[in-house]
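Review form for a predicted model. The reviewer records the input and the model, then writes brief findings.
Reviewer: anonymous (R2)
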Amino acid sequence: MVDLFLQGGPFMWPILIVFIIGITFVIERAISLSLSTVNTKKFVISVNKKLHDEGPEAAMELCASTRGPVASVFHAGLMRLGRGVDAVEKGIMNAGSIELAFLEKNLVWLATVIAIAPMLGFTGTVSGMISAFQDIAAANDITPSIVASGISEALLTTLFGLVVAIIIQFFNNLFVSVIDKTVADMQESSVEFVDTLMAYQQEHGGEGATNK
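Model under review:
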C-alpha cells in the first residue's frame, strides 16, 4: 500500500491530508451523535411521571440532567409553562432549531471532503498524463515502459481520490440517517408534550414552572 501511495506522485499527499481531515470529523460526529441518542419513549414517560408526581421543577431538573435534543426541547417547553400554548410552542420550536443546528454541525466539512477528494484525484490524473507525454517526447518513443510511470500515477490518484470520497460518503449518509431519525423523534414527542403541558396547566389552574 505504501509503494502504491508513493507511485501515485505528489497529488497523493493532498488526498491523504483531506482523508485525515474527513476521518477527524467522522470521529467527532460519531461521538457527538452517540451522546445525543437516548430512548425517547422511556424519557417521555419519565418526564410525564415527574411532571404529574412532583411538578414542573422536578421535570425540568430531569430534562437538564439528560443529554440529547429531546431533553433540551422539553426543558424549553417546561420553562414557558404557564405562559400559554403559543409561548410553549414557540419555545419548543426555537429550541428544536438550535438542536438541529448542533446535530448537523460539521456535516458541511464531510461534504467538502467528498467533493474535493475526487477532484484532487482527477488533477493527479491530468498531471500523470502530462508526465507520460513528456516522457514520450523526451525519449522520442512510445514503448510501454516509458509511459507506464505516468499512467500509473494518473490511475492511482484517481483511485485513491474516489476511495476517500466513498468512505466519507458512507459515514456522511449514516449520520444524516441518524439525524433524520432523531429529528423525527423530537418532532413527534414535542407535539405530544405540548398537549401534556396544556392538560397539566388546565388541571392546575395555570400553575407553571415560571410562576412558582
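Findings: The helical segments are 2-7, 12-36, 40-54, 56-64, 69-79, 85-103, 107-139, 144-203.
Further findings: The CA atoms of residues 186 and 201 lie 22 Å apart.
Recommendation: see findings above.
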